[in-house]
Structure formats: structure tokens, C-alpha cells
């Protein structure tokens, strides 16, 4: 009897063991899995005041927004939402007829191309990839049916490294401000404070790069929208200009994000806003932003193709703000006269690139008359005008004369104005007067020969 009981208990124990093993295999969905294996932890990214999200983007069959600092797995359909400035991704649908921009690991290129017939398959390098560079350029949020053109984008500086000295508190301030900027309808007071902080932080190159990656479209939207106050729009323009100033990586990021659409998405709204806006301070800030934006690769050609020079001439003639006129004059000299349209010439396989002169058919000689009309309209008796702008206009006028020679003719009133100004300056006995003597003499010599 006891033996039978032992055999019965042993049989029950064996059955329980077999049932438990079968359940473990089923729950893991893998015959080789272990019932005790812990689930793989998901690495999250968390920012203050914002819900955490996975570091690696989790795709579905519908387009979902991709956070700026998320990693996009290879082989997804990715597009740029022009309205929000952000990226969206989903699982590839083989039944879709439209072309797709796909992230592809280099070693999987042949495999994917053999099994898929996508019109604009994009192969992403394995090392240090800026994922925004493979988004279809020049398209709206629902347009992905044109293959991206081949672009030669200047390489980023090899010595670019994150700044280890940026404090955690500054990073926290930065991310909090960016979070406000990305809200669909931020409170006015919060937006003003966020832009104030970002305009200060954007001088730091690393913050500038991150701002371009995360908020470029939002900054452009604020700058060009009359829904915001001119003060807010001015702060956004300063932040954009600061982010691009002396920041080769940030400049490269713009072209990588928007490709050939950069002209329409970035430069065109800035020029349109400058032409239509009447606020003096905002226009000065816009001119600052434009002067930095044209340094994007191919930026000067884009500027010319949008009739940017004609826009500046209209703004110059329409405004009575002397500092703005000075900024426009300095822009012409810095970007089109002294620099002679110089930009990086990057050929395939060339890492460093070289400086080359870009030839255009644009003739700036018409600005000779525009600048002279400005100068002779200034009263020699005032002596308290904007000397900074006067110096910039004089320097640009001389550069035009040097470049165009007889095509840059003196207006009849110019010689008299120059003489009157030199006489006024001679009576002054301060540093400002000494500062303006040289450009006055240079312009007089250029147009009328050396004085006795």
C-alpha cells in the first residue's frame, strides 16, 4: 500500500514538472528560452517636465513622431514633417506605391535592394550618422515620392567634440527651454523666458548644434508668424543667428536636415519677413539671422536665386533706420564683395575640401547709387547721426567702386557731401571723428583722386 502511494506521488510530481516546463517554453515564445530569464530592460530617455520615452524608437504600422535624440532602427520608412520640423517613422509597408526614405545598414544594402523596389533607398553609413541627412529634401509632410538629389555637403570639422565643461544645470536649463519651445501652444511668459535663456546659451557651439537639430523649424515658424509679438520673434531670430554664428557643424546640420528644401524652408521665410515687417528692432535681428544663414553650404546661391539682393535693396530704400542700413551694407561687403562668393568646394572622396570662388551673373554696381543717395541725404551739420552705419556704408561704397570701376559712377552731390563731412569731422576732437576720417578719405580718393 505504501509502495503504491509512493508510486502515485512520484507520478504526480513528474506530471507537474512536465507541465511547468511546457508552460515556461510557451510563456517565453522560444524553445531555447529559460523560464527564469528576466525581460530585457528598455533604456529610456527622460527630460525634466516631460514623459520618458525609449532611447530606440519603437515603430508601428502608422507614422509616429521621432524624438530628436531617439535612435531610429535600420529599415524603417522615415519622412520629415515640414509643419512641425520633426521626423516621423513607421514599419515599411511593401504594398505602398510611394517612394520611401529608408535607413539601411551598409551590410544589408544588397539584401534589401534585392527584396524591395523602393525608388529612393538611402544607405546610411555605419559611423557617426546624422539621421536627418537621409530624409527626403524639399518635400512636404505627405510627399515622399521624389528621389533625393545627390548633394555634396561639406564635411564637419574632424576636431568637433562635445564640450565636457558644460554643467548639468546648464543642460537642464537648455532642455527645459527647448521643451517649452516645442509645445504646440506655450504660454507667452514661458516662451519669452525660454527664448531669453536659449539666446544666451546658443553662443555655445554644442548648444547651437542641438538647437538646430531640435528646434530649427520651430524657430523659423516663430520668426515668420505674426501670431507672436515682435519681441518674441526678435528673440527667436537672435537665437537662430547665434546658433549658426562661427559654428560649422550647426551650418552643416541645416543642409543635412532639409537638403535642397533649405532655400524654401529657411531662407525664403526670413527674406519674406524682412520685406514685410515694419518693426525696427525685429528687422535688425532678421538681418543678423540672414547674414548667418547664407553661410550654409550653397546658401549664397540660394539667396541670389530668391532675389535676396533685390529684397535688401527694397528694404534699404524703405527704411529710415540707419543701423539697419549699416547692417545691410556690411552684409553686402562681407558676403559678396570681400568674400567674392567664396564657399567650400567639396568633391566626392575629398575630406577637407577647398575654398573656391563661385561665379554668378549678379551685378551689384546698382548699389553704388543706392548707397550714395543714402549718404548725401544725411545732414553734415547734425554730427550726431549713426557713425557706425556711416562707416559701413562708406566702406561698402569703396569696395563697389574698386570692383566695378567706371560702372560705379559718382553722383553730382557726392563730392560736396564728402567735403562737408570732412570739414565737420575736422572740427570734432574725439575718437569717433578720428575713426571716420579714414573711410571718408578712401571714398574721396576712389571717386575723385587723391586730395592735395
Automatic annotation (TrEMBL):
Q: Does the keyword Transit peptide apply?
A: no
Q: Where is the composition biased (Pro residues)?
A: 146-157
The molecular function terms in GO held by this entry are: adenyl-nucleotide exchange factor activity
Q: Which GO terms describe its cellular component?
A: endoplasmic reticulum
InterPro entries on file = ARM-like (IPR011989), ARM-type_fold (IPR016024), Hsp70_NEF-Inhibitors (IPR050693), Sil1_fungi (IPR031884)
Cite the residue spans of the region called Disordered.
132-166
Matching Pfam families: SIL1
Instruction: Supply the alphabetized keyword list.
Output: Endoplasmic reticulum, Protein transport, Signal, Translocation, Transport
| Annotated family | Belongs to the SIL1 family.
Question: How does the annotation summarize its subunit structure?
Answer: Interacts with KAR2.
Q: Spell out the protein name for this chain.
A: Nucleotide exchange factor SIL1
Amino acid at each position: 500500500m505504501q509502495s503504491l502511494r509512493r508510486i502515485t506521488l512520484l507520478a504526480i510530481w513528474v506530471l507537474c514538472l512536465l507541465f511547468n516546463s511546457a508552460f515556461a517554453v510557451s510563456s517565453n515564445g522560444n524553445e531555447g528560452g529559460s523560464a527564469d530569464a528576466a525581460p530585457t530592460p528598455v533604456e529610456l530617455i527622460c527630460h525634466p517636465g516631460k514623459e520618458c520615452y525609449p532611447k530606440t524608437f519603437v515603430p508601428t504600422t502608422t507614422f509616429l513622431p521621432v524624438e530628436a535624440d531617439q535612435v531610429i532602427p535600420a529599415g524603417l520608412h522615415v519622412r520629415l514633417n515640414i509643419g512641425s520640423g520633426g521626423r516621423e517613422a513607421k514599419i515599411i509597408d511593401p504594398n505602398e506605391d510611394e517612394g520611401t526614405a529608408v535607413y539601411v545598414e551598409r551590410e544589408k544594402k544588397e539584401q534589401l535592394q534585392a527584396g524591395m523596389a523602393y525608388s529612393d533607398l538611402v544607405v546610411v553609413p555605419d559611423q557617426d550618422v546624422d539621421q536627418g541627412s537621409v530624409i527626403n529634401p524639399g518635400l512636404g509632410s505627405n510627399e515622399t515620392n521624389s528621389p533625393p538629389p545627390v548633394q555634396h555637403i561639406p564635411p564637419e570639422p574632424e576636431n568637433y567634440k562635445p564640450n565636457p565643461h558644460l554643467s548639468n544645470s546648464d543642460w537642464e536649463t537648455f532642455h527645459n527651454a527647448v521643451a517649452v519651445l516645442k509645445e504646440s501652444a506655450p504660454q507667452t511668459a514661458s516662451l519669452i523666458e525660454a527664448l531669453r535663456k536659449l539666446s544666451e546659451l546658443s553662443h555655445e557651439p554644442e548648444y547651437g548644434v542641438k538647437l538646430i537639430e531640435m528646434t530649427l523649424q520651430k524657430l523659423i515658424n516663430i520668426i515668420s508668424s505674426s501670431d507672436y509679438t515682435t519681441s518674441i520673434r526678435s528673440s527667436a531670430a537672435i537665437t537662430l543667428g547665434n546658433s549658426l554664428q562661427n559654428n560649422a557643424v550647426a551650418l552643416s546640420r541645416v543642409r543635412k536636415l532639409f537638403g535642397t528644401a533649405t532655400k524654401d524652408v529657411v531662407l525664403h521665410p526670413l527674406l519674406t519677413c524682412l520685406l514685410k515687417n515694419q518693426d525696427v528692432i525685429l528687422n535688425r535681428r532678421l538681418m543678423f539671422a540672414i547674414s548667418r544663414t547664407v553661410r550654409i553650404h550653397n546658401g549664397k546661391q540660394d539667396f541670389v536665386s530668391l532675389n535676396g539682393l533685390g529684397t535688401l535693396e527694397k528694404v534699404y530704400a524703405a527704411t529710415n533706420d540707419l543701423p539697419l542700413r549699416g547692417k545691410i551694407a556690411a552684409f553686402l561687403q562681407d558676403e559678396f564683395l570681400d568674400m567674392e562668393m567664396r564657399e567650400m568646394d567639396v568633391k566626392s572622396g575629398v575630406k577637407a575640401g577647398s575654398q573656391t570662388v563661385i561665379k554668378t551673373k549678379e551685378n551689384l554696381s546698382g548699389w553704388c547709387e543706392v548707397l550714395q543717395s543714402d549718404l548725401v541725404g544725411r545732414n553734415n551739420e547734425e554730427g550726431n547721426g549713426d557713425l557706425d552705419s556711416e562707416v559701413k556704408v562708406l566702406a561698402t561704397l569703396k569696395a563697389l567702386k574698386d570692383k566695378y570701376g567706371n560702372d560705379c559712377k559718382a553722383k553730382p552731390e557726392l563730392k560736396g557731401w564728402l567735403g562737408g563731412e570732412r570739414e565737420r569731422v575736422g572740427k570734432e576732437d574725439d575718437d569717433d571723428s578720428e575713426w571716420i576720417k579714414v573711410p571718408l578719405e578712401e571714398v574721396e580718393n576712389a571717386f575723385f583722386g587723391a586730395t592735395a
